[in-house]
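Example 3.2
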Amino acid sequence: MAASLHTLVVEAVRAGVRGRGDSWYETPAMAEVSAVRVELRSVSKTFGPVRALVGISSTFVGGKVTVISGSNGSGKSTLLSLVADLTRPTSGTVDHGGLGRDRLAVRAAVGWLGHDSLCYGDLTGRENVELAARLRGLEPQVAYEKAAARFDLDAFAHRPVRTYSRGQRQRIALARALLHGPMLLLLDEPTAGLDVGSVERLVRIVREEAARGAIVALVTHDPELARTLADETLTLERGRVVPAAAD
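Structure, written as tokens:
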């Protein structure tokens, strides 16, 4: 019987594929830009008869954390996909400025973390990190060692990910997302199911990423996390921006 795609990936990783370089945080995502920002102008997105977003205008700026809130189905994840250039607006424009003028350049600048880690369960944590490094053109061993030091991975990174706790999987996923020093970090409900220690680690990392100048957009239902991290707040309701309350 033909091997599954998952099995082929596991075998390919364990066979060892050489990385294309030994750089660290030296990818197109780290190119100097005059203005690190993503601007949405009158953006709408429809899926058949469903209007997921309606007339969204907003700016995400480097060095700041924008917290995106709203009820389920309000359009938060669709908005992140547009910011990441994973989907195109039905109308309006998304300007990625100095991050890149084409999809490949923009995607090279993106680091993504969702509530699902999307790690390969039959690979070890280290193998997951090294696979991501190879795909980014980084030297796998160097990339892993730096990630392990930053995220304290060595205590569990040599076991298959399927044996991990929720917090351990998210640490591997966050390490993968940040390997290449992305200038656009998108986090979709990253604290779901995490314990207090894991949430504190995430908060510290998010602050570090904003401090180095990255754009950070964070979707969360957690009001305490929002208060802790938000430099800017964007609230959605039925695909529209809710105006901020007057002071």
